[in-house]
Amino acid sequence: MTHWEDFYNTHLPPADFEDNRSLLKEFCERHNKLQNRIVLVTSGGTTVPLEHNTVRFVDNFSAGTRGSASAEYFLDHDYAVIFMHRHKSLEPFTRHFTGQQFFDMLDIADTADSQNSTIAIKPDSVDVFAPVLAKYKIARETQMILYVNFTSVVDYMWLLRAACECLAAFEERAVLYLAAAVSDFYIPEDMMPTHKMQSGDGAPTISLQLVPKMLAPLASLWVPHAFVVSFKLETDENLLIVKARDSLNKYKHKLVIANVLQTRKHRVVFVTPTDSYELHLSRDKALQGLEIEEPIVADVVQKHSDFIISAEQRQ
Amino acid sequence: MTHWEDFYNTHLPPADFEDNRSLLKEFCERHNKLQNRIVLVTSGGTTVPLEHNTVRFVDNFSAGTRGSASAEYFLDHDYAVIFMHRHKSLEPFTRHFTGQQFFDMLDIADTADSQNSTIAIKPDSVDVFAPVLAKYKIARETQMILYVNFTSVVDYMWLLRAACECLAAFEERAVLYLAAAVSDFYIPEDMMPTHKMQSGDGAPTISLQLVPKMLAPLASLWVPHAFVVSFKLETDENLLIVKARDSLNKYKHKLVIANVLQTRKHRVVFVTPTDSYELHLSRDKALQGLEIEEPIVADVVQKHSDFIISAEQRQ
C-alpha cells in the first residue's frame, strides 16, 4: 500500500482546490470565533478514473442519502456544517424533491394585465414544501452550512486534509462524520493510459492498487482532539462487528457506525471502543416519514457532548 | 466476444422490465396510429457492476447533456420522444435548473390571514423559467414524451431491444438517436463475486469481457427500415473519422455523429456513407445561450425527411 504522504506527493490537487481551501478557512475561522460546534459531513461515493482523459471510471455505490439527511439534523442541533459531497449527489433540503417533482408542483398563472405571468407552488404542495424551503433559507442566511464537492478519490483526499487543517483549531468541538463511500482502490497516475481504451485492443484487465487509509493520519495527526466517527458498509452481516472493532483498534477513533447494504435505511450498529448496540427505525416510524438519520445524529450529538464534558474535566 | 443472442440468454431482464415494456408498447401504438414521427433518444452512461450485491461498478462518463437537450429539440420538431436515460442523469427541461437553483428562485410569503403561506418564483426569475416550464407541461399533457430509465449495461440492452420491437411498426418514420455512452466491457454473471470485495484480500484485478455490438442486430434485424444515428466519442482526434467510417461500413446504418470529449459542446462531425462535414457552434452563439444540439437535431430531422421521401419514391 502507498504511504499516505506518498499519495499526496504523487497526485496533484484538483483545479478548484485553492478556492475550496479559502472557503473552508473562512467558514471555520468565523465559526471558531463564535465558539460554535462544527461537523464535517462527507457524503456520496468517489470515482477512480481509468484514463487520463476520463471516459471510464470505477465508482462506489452511494446516492448520498445518509450524509445529506444527517447534515440537516446536525443543523437542527445548531452545528455549523461543512457538507463535503460528491458532485451531483444528494444535498440537504433539495434531496426531498427531484427535478420533475419541482416542475409538477408549479402552476403558471397569467396576471390580469396579461403582460406578466406568475409561477407559484400549488396550494396542496405548500404544506410539504414550505418547511423544507424555510430551513434551507435559514441555513443559507445564517451561513451555518458550507457546500464543497469532489468527484475522484484524489479530489476527496485533498479536500479531506484541507478541511482537517481548518478543523484542528476547534479541538473537541469538532465532529468528523465520515459517511462518504471512499474507494479502497485506485490506479496510480503512472499506470493510467492517456486515451480512451479501445475495444479493438481486446478486453482489458484493470489492475488496482490499495488507497492508503487516511483515517490513520486523520485521527492521530490532523485532528487528534476531534470526535471522529467512521462508517462501515458491508454486504455480509457476519463481517460487520468484527471489521468495525478492527477499525477502532487500529485508528483509535471514537465510533464506528456499521451497516449492511440491504438494511441500512432502518438498522445500524453503533460500535464504540467499549460497547456495541443496535439502533433501529420501526416500520411504523418509517411509514410516518421518519428517517433513521434523525436518531443516529441525536445519538452522535449526545456522545459528542459527553466527550466535550469529559475533556473539560481532564483539564 | 459474446454473441448478442447469448447475452440475452445469460442475463436476466431488470425487475421493472415488464412495466417499461408495457409503457413502450402503449406509447408507440398510440403515436403510430396518429402517423407521428418518433425518435428513441438514449442518454447517459451505463454501469458495469463489479459485485452481485453492488457496491462498486465501472461507469462511463456522461451527464446526459447531449441526449436531454436533443430530446427537447425533437419535441420542437413535433416528434414523439422516447427518452431512455440513465437513472438520475439529466432530463429534458429540468436539466436547466439544479436543486439549489430551484430553491433560490423561490420566495415564501405569508398571506393576509397568516394562516397559509404562498410560495412563488421570484419575478426576476419568471422570464427564464416560464418558457421552460410551459414546454415541459405541454409535452406532458400532449403525451409526446415517455421517460424510461436504466442503470446497468444489462438494463440498457433489454430496454433497447424492447423499444426496437415497438418501433419496428413505424418503419421509416422512426429515428434511433443513440447518444447514450454504453460500456464496451462487462463482467459476465458467473465471474462476479457475491459480496463486496475486501481490501484485506490485496489489490484486486478486474477482468472485463467485450459487450456484443447491439448496433449489428438493431440495424439489420430489429428496425431495418428506421433512420439509425449512432454517436462516437473519442479523446483522440486522429481516430475520429476512421472509426466513424468503420462503424458505418460494418453496421450499414445512416449516420454517425462523431465528437471529441474536450470539444463536444461546440463541434461535431457528421459522417454519412458518402460524406463527412463539420457542424460548429460559434463562440458568439454559445455566449447567447444557444446549444449545438439545436443545429444537430435540425440537421438530423432534415436528413430524416429526405430519407422518408426517397423511401416513398422507391415504392
From TrEMBL, chains A, B:
Q: At the top level of its lineage, which domain of life is listed?
A: Eukaryota
Any one Gene Ontology BP term: triglyceride homeostasis
Residues in domain DNA/pantothenate metabolism flavoprotein C-terminal?
165-274
Q: Pfam families from the xrefs?
A: DFP
Gene3D superfamilies, sorted = CoaB-like
GO MF terms here are: phosphopantothenate--cysteine ligase activity
Q: Which family does it belong to?
A: Belongs to the PPC synthetase family.
Q: What is the protein name given in its UniProt record?
A: GH18479
